[in-house]
């Protein structure tokens, strides 16, 4: 049990996917303009990550033991296919949720956090439950970082800065300071 | 990104070809001597630099640049993948159906990444270990997919290769710039060679994740400043020319 808790907290705060592994930076810098869209993207991401964790486990257990060199190709194809499939299912079952997620659902396919999750899960040899908990933590961490960044950006939009700094440079420096703040969590647990 | 004000030589030849304006032998000769090859090769290095000008491929950019050696290994792997997949996409462009083109590109890219991954593992196990999951993650580097969609799928194999070499060169340049600054400040060394005396106190933060964000932010500022200065210079020149007339 404590193992699972440690995996969760580690993915959520200590080894946050965005701020310490630099995964999913494109949506982090691109879609963090507004708090509500950032939050929705985060939720969509958690959902896709959970499904990916399950698919990764199934692939690793039943298929890839026979053909390890196909790992990367099968992961990326399965992720793209799954996202497409989920999109169709949600559209059919719950049009309201589909509208809320909007363009973000297809965009998630090219989010490196998803493939990163699949690769980390494989490299660390997580089983099904561990993988799902890891996905939940990683997705939660992504949502947390995205929401924090969106809040910070809404403030910086209103402040006066030189035109040259405005845009990506300012966002990166803000992210650097946010990342520094997250380093504080590394003392949260003694290294196990 | 700067847009060229006039059509490229390639496009002008295409228009002439379509309009039957000149003999086709003459046009074919011009096409072969096409100087665009050099232009495609050099544009990625600075003007359309994938990182500084287009802000693409940020994830590997920040994750592996805590030392110059890692940065070079990442840059070379990306070069291999980008050149290979661009050539392949440009060659296969007639056979790839439009509706599923993205999936096809991704599978082609993933194939080359798998090759790069295993090659690096065999030749340089230490570097492979240091780069960890980030070699497989080249698949989702948006710069690579972006070049296939924006360029390689619309042009000839040779131009696609030139563009790929230029873009990957620009990426390597950006990786190296970031990696050297972080290694020099964070470790007092470059490519593992000590630069300062024993009294140097390393700025450890530069090797840690926040340093990546900060240094890249500052490098983007520098690039923006140089670009703005150049634009001001061009404006001033135009003004002076107007006065002289």
What does this structure look like?
The complex is a heterodimer of chains A (192) and B (245). Chain A is built from 9 helices and no strands. Chain A is mostly helical and 192 residues long. Chain A starts with a helix and ends in a 9-residue tail after the last helix. The mean pLDDT of chain A is 82. Chain B is mostly helical and 245 residues long. Chain B folds into 2 domains: 1-34, no CATH class; 50-213, no CATH class. In chain B, a hairpin with a 2-residue loop joins β1 (189-190) and β2. Chain B is flat, with a radius of gyration of 21 Å. Mean pLDDT of chain B is 81; it is low at 1-5.
Mean pLDDT of chain B: 81
Distance between the termini of chain B: 31 Å
Biggest sheet of chain A, open or closed, and with what strands and sense?
none
What is the strand tally of chain B? 2
Helix tally of chain A?
A: 9
- Unreliable spans of chain B are 1-5
User: Can you summarize the main beta sheet of chain B?
Assistant: 2 strands, antiparallel
Rg calculated over all Cα atoms of chain A: 17 Å
- Helix and strand succession of chain A? HHHHHHHHH
Coarse structural class of chain B: mainly alpha
Give me the oligomer status: heterodimer
Strand content of chain B: under 5%
The termini of chain A sit apart by 14 Å
* Helix share, percent of chain B: 55-70%
Short description:
With 192 residues, chain A is mostly helical. In chain A, 73% of the residues lie in helices and 0% in strands.
Relevant terms:
heterodimer; A: 192 residues; mainly alpha; B: 245 residues; 2 domains; 10 helices; 2 strands; 67% helix; disordered N terminus
């Amino acid at each position: 049990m404590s193992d699972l808790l440690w995996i969760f907290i580690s993915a959520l705060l200590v080894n946050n996917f965005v701020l310490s592994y630099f995964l999913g930076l494109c949506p982090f810098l691109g879609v963090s303009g507004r708090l509500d869209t950032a939050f929705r993207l985060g939720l969509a991401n958690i959902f896709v990550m959970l499904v990916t964790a399950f698919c990764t486990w199934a692939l690793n257990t039943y298929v890839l033991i026979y053909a390890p060199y196909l790992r990367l190709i099968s992961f990326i194809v399965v992720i793209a296919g799954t996202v497409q499939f989920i999109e169709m299912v949600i559209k059919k079952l719950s049009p309201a949720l589909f509208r809320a997620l909007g363009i973000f659902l297809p965009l998630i396919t090219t989010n490196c956090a998803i493939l990163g999750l699949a690769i980390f899960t494989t490299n660390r040899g997580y089983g099904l439950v561990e993988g799902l908990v890891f996905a939940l933590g990683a997705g939660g961490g992504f949502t947390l970082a995205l929401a924090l960044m969106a809040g910070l950006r809404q403030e910086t939009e209103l402040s006066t800065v030189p035109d040259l700094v405005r845009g990506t440079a300012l966002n990166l420096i803000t992210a650097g300071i946010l990342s520094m703040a997250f380093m504080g969590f590394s003392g949260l647990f003694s290294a196990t | 990104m700067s847009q060229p004000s006039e059509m490229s030589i390639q496009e002008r030849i295409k228009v002439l070809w379509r309009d039957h304006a000149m003999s086709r032998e003459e046009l074919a000769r011009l096409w072969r001597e096409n100087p665009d090859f050099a232009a495609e090769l050099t544009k990625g290095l600075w003007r359309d630099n994938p990182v500084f000008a287009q802000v693409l491929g940020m994830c590997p950019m920040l994750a592996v640049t805590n030392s110059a050696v890692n940065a070079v290994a990442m840059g070379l792997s990306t070069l291999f993948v980008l050149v290979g997949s661009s050539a392949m996409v440009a060659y296969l462009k007639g056979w790839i159906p439009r509706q599923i083109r993205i999936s096809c590109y991704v599978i082609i890219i993933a194939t080359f990444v798998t090759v790069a991954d295993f090659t690096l593992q065999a030749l340089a196990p230490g570097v492979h270990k240091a780069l960890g999951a980030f070699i497989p993650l080249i698949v989702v580097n948006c710069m690579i997919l972006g070049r296939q969609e924006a360029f390689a799928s619309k042009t000839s194999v040779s131009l696609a290769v030139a563009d790929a070499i230029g873009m990957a060169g620009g990426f390597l340049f950006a990786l190296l710039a970031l990696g050297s600054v972080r290694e020099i400040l964070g470790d007092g060394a470059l490519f593992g060679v000590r630069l300062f005396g024993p009294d140097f106190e390393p700025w450890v933060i530069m090797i840690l994740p926040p340093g990546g964000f900060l240094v890249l932010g500052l490098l983007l500022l520098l690039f923006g400043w140089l670009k703005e200065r150049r634009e001001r210079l061009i404006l001033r020149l135009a003004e002076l020319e107007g006065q002289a007339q």
